[in-house]
Specification:
326 residues, 20 strands, Jelly Rolls, 2 domains, globular
C-alpha cells in the first residue's frame, strides 16, 4: 500500500506538569486546560501517549497504525529496520514557568537493561526566555561520586552545576547522562529519542499539591551520570537565510534550521527518512502536488519518507523551522 503523500499534522498531547505555565496556550495557541501545562507532545508513540492525525484523509488514525500499515514507505527503510513499528523520536514544546528538577537520562544500554526502552539524547532550541532565565547544564568542576553525593546530601548540588543565561535562538545538545535543568521563564522546542525515562536528582525542596516531595532517583542515577565537563555548553551554528543550516548531527537524529523569506523547493530522492518540521517563528505553508498544510509558530508537521518533492512558502515573508530526521 502506497504511503500518504501529504504533510501530516497530529493532535498535540498536552501534559500537566508541576512546573508548567500557560504559554503553550497563550503564546503557542494550544488548546486551554484548567491546569498549568508544561509540555505539548507533538509526535509520539510513547505508550498511552500515541499521536493521532489531525488533518487530511488519515484524520483520526494513530501514528502507530500508520507505521504498521505503511512501514518503510512512511518512516524510511533504515528507520524501519532499526526501530520496527516504534517511532524513534519524541517531539515536544515545553513551557517552564518555574525551574524543572535537576535530572538526567540514561544511555541506551542502561535504559534497555532497566526499562526495556531506548535511552534519551535530546536537544533544545530556545524559542523565548525571560530576562534572567537560565539553564543548568553539566558540572562546573571535577567531581567524584563521593563528592557529588555529599553535595546532594547537603542540598548544594546547584553550586557545582554550570549555570548559563540564555536567549532566543540558542541551541543546547544534551547527551544521555548529562545532568541538566531548564530554568523558569523558558519556552523551548525539544527533540529527543523516544523515551520517557528521567532520573530526578534534586527538586528544590518542592512540594506537590498534596504537600509531598516528588520522588528522587539517587541510586538509579549514580551509574548513569556523566561526570565529565563538556567542552562546549552551547551548540554553535550559523543560520543562513533561505538555506539549510546544520545544527545537530548525531546517530539518533539530525536537525537543521531553515529561515526563509521566500519559497523553498525541497527534493529528497537521496533521503531515506521521514522529515519533521517544527515552526519556531513565523508561519507558512508546506505543500505537495495535491495538498497544502498550514504551519505556524508552535506547530509541527511530518513529511512521510515516500514524499520526495514538496515546497515551503513563508507567510508575510518569514518562517523559521527546525527540520528533523532520523
Amino acid at each position: 500500500m502506497k504511503a500518504p503523500n501529504y504533510p501530516i499534522k497530529f493532535i498535540p498531547i498536552l501534559q500537566e506538569r508541576i512546573w508548567g505555565g500557560y504559554k503553550l496556550h497563550t503564546v503557542l495557541g494550544k488548546e486551554a486546560k484548567p491546569l498549568p501545562i508544561g509540555e505539548s507532545w507533538e509526535i509520539s508513540t510513547i505508550p498511552d501517549n500515541v499521536s493521532i492525525v489531525e488533518n487530511g484523509f488519515l484524520k483520526g488514525e494513530s501514528l502507530q497504525d500508520l507505521i504498521h500499515t505503511y512501514k518503510a514507505d512512511f518512516v524510511g527503510e533504515k528507520v524501519y529496520t532499526n526501530y520496527g513499528e516504534n517511532f524513534p523520536l519524541l517531539i515536544k514544546f515545553i513551557d517552564a514557568k518555574t525551574d524543572l528538577s535537576v535530572q538526567l537520562h540514561p544511555n541506551d544500554d542502561l535504559a534497555q537493561k532497566r526499562h526495556n526502552c531506548s535511552g534519551k539524547e535530546e536537544m533544545w532550541y530556545i524559542m523565548s526566555a525571560e530576562k534572567d532565565s537560565r539553564l543548568l547544564f553539566g558540572f562546573n568542576q571535577e567531581l567524584s561520586k563521593d563528592t557529588y553525593l555529599n553535595h546532594l546530601k547537603n542540598n548544594t548540588l546547584p553550586e557545582v552545576l554550570h549555570s548559563e543565561k540564555i536567549k532566543e535562538g540558542a541551541v543546547y545538545h544534551i547527551p544521555a547522562g548529562r545532568v541538566h535543568a531548564i530554568g523558569s521563564g523558558v519556552v523551548l522546542a525539544e527533540i529527543q529519542q523516544s523515551s520517557d525515562v528521567t532520573y530526578r536528582l534534586y527538586d528544590w525542596d518542592r512540594k506537590d499539591t498534596k504537600g509531598k516531595g516528588r520522588e528522587l532517583h539517587t541510586e538509579q542515577a549514580l551509574d548513569a551520570i556523566d561526570f565529565s565537563i563538556p567542552n562546549n555548553f552551547k551548540t554553535k551554528y550559523k543560520a543562513i537565510l533561505n538555506s539549510r543550516s546544520s545544527v545537530i548531527r548525531s546517530p539518533n537524529f539530525v536537525t537543521n534550521i531553515l529561515e526563509l523569506n521566500t519559497l523553498m523547493r525541497i527534493e529528497t530522492t537521496h533521503k531515506d527518512s521521514f522529515t519533521i518540521y517544527m515552526c519556531v517563528s513565523g508561519a507558512g505553508q508546506i505543500s505537495t502536488k495535491d495538498f497544502t498544510t498550514n504551519i505556524k509558530m508552535g506547530e509541527t508537521v511530518l513529511i512521510p519518507a515516500s514524499v520526495k518533492n514538496y515546497q515551503i512558502m513563508p507567510e508575510s515573508n518569514y518562517i523559521k523551522l527546525l527540520q528533523v530526521s532520523a
